[in-house]
From TrEMBL:
Record's keyword terms, sorted: Membrane, Transmembrane, Transmembrane helix
MF terms (GO), sorted A to Z: monocarboxylic acid transmembrane transporter activity
Membrane topology: Multi-pass membrane protein
Recorded GO CC terms: membrane
Organism expressing this protein natively: Cirrhinus molitorella
Top-level taxonomy: Eukaryota, Metazoa, Chordata, Craniata, Vertebrata
Record has Transmembrane helix as a keyword: yes
Transmembrane segments: 16-36, 56-80, 87-105, 111-131, 143-161, 167-194, 284-307, 319-340, 352-372, 378-399, 411-430, 442-466
Protein name: Major facilitator superfamily (MFS) profile domain-containing protein
InterPro entries associated with the record: MFS, MFS_dom, MFS_trans_sf, Proton-linked_MCT
Amino acid sequence: MSTQSTQNTKQAPDGGWGWAIVVASFMGQLLAYGSPQSVGVLYPEWLNTFQDGKGMTAWVGSLVSGVGLIASPICSACVVNFGARPVTIFSGVMVSGGLMLSAFAPNVQFLIFSYGIVVGLGCGLVYAATVTIICQYFDKRRGLALGIVTTGSSIGGFLYATVQNELIALFGLNGCLLLIGCFALNIIACAGLMRPLHLPAYYLKQRAALAEKVEEKVLEKPPVVEDPIKKNQSVNVPITGETKDPPPFEKSLVSYAALVRLMMKKQKEYSEYLRSTVELLQNWVFVAMCVSLFAYCLGAYTPLLFLEDLAQSEGLISGISKIPLVSIMSIAAGVGKLLLGVMIDIRWMNSIFLYAFTLLGTGVALLIIPITKNYAGLQAISALLGFFSGNWSVLPYMTTKVVGMDRLTEAYGILMFFGGFSIMLGPPVAGWIYDWMHSYDLAFYFSGSFVLLGGAGLFFAALCCWNKNQDETQTPDTEGINDYDKVATVA
């Protein structure tokens, strides 16, 4: 028990080897998320190769982004039980294997499994592992460390969009996927630097079980009483009387009772979780957040997949651009994460209004896409959409203001479920609209309208609780700093 407590109370070094882990985590997210963040470059190639509908092909890009969010509780549980290093190694194998398998895909259905599900789960594991170990190594500088690490996905999307274009031109689509899969194997090398600061729960449980077995053997062994006459000999004299094994019926009865107790304990935990979830959903501001996130993800991920194909199909660009639109969106998203994160530190800034403003701006930009008739205009819209997509850095802080610090983890998990489910639906729905209308106009009108409705609903919800949020923003600076450090564990 003493070793377990010392492991759990070990303080974060806030530097030292932690900066090496920051570099490793940054590279891990860059290598894992580089291809999924620039999947819009691969989407036109898959359309030309398999000649399938845009709605069916869009499942590949939507699943690779949505599966990781929906499976985030499972990914976090894996990191807690097995540690960041083994999970990162396994995720490197998944991401690399999924990309390489995609090179041999005979149809879109195989791509949905290999690229959408396998690579998506691998990315979710990488994200959970890197964020968890950063939170272990940093406390006072946690926000800075997390900001550096999470920009790895944006920079990866910016670099991989251009790299994948060049590799497709040199080696074809299959050769590009094979090489990108080989690059992803370097995630395993990044895991080598992730020295654990705390022993994972699985190893602690194994150690505790081993200690219990040793104690049982010691207690079962009868004490040795030394004979005063024969000092060189020892006689085993049991203190208690003869012990008889219980009959098989009693053993089965005891095991059955233990199983019933375990089931009742789990049932109690599940019922408490359901009751807590129902209480959260009775907070209508939180419900407005869930609805707005669902509407935002339903429309905001459509340009990531379709904007490059739109530019080529409308004849706005001939061939492949040196700087694709998804590259512009990715680098602007990194800038948006940093700037919006700085803006949320302003004392008078209301996080709900700021998040609603990003949703309204995204909706307006989506509605402008169909009337844009030149490539420079699409580049400007891509930069705007990318900047507003940095609002993911505002979401945990906003959640804290609405539900409180104690319920942040549970509420954020519910939000991630809504977001992941919506991301999986958005691009396929837009693709089906194109297959039906043979035009992207209605698809972007549909996406922009949903995002605008979500932003407007959240804005009116924020107006109703304006006084409450003003009281919260007038708290002392030290309290706000402590809250933000706690929120960083979820961000």
